[in-house]
Amino acid sequence: MNDLAALLPLVAIVALFWFMVIRPQQRRQREVVSLQQSIQVGQRVMMSSGVFGTVVSLTDDRARLEIAPGTQIEIARAAIAKVDEPVLGQADEPGDA
Fold it and tell me: Which pLDDT score, from 0 to 100, does residue 86 have?
């Protein structure tokens, strides 16, 4: 009985570590994988480096983005950090009237 009581704080620390560190990290990783799999041609995305572009084509592990009119780059699909969703009612590009 005394040995079990000595192990209880260790078990509590491991459980706390699991719920505070490992579990949230796994959830974030699932969200990132889901985002990268749901990307479609024509969407405006932001890469992890902060570069914005429109998806022109997709393969299994790569994407081709148009970052300026007539300028396309090929990137690793994993480099896409988020989908840029424009606010409704705003112009697509700054300076449009």
Answer: 56
Torsion of CA 79, 64, 57, 72, to 10 degrees: 150
pLDDT at 6: 82
Burial label for 19, CB within 10 Å (0-12, 13-18, 19+), is exposed
Flag whether pLDDT at 91 surpasses 70: no
Provide the residue type at 64 as one letter. R
Element (H, E) at 12: helix 2-17
User: What Rg value do the Cα atoms of the chain yield, rounded?
Assistant: 22
Give the length of the chain: 97
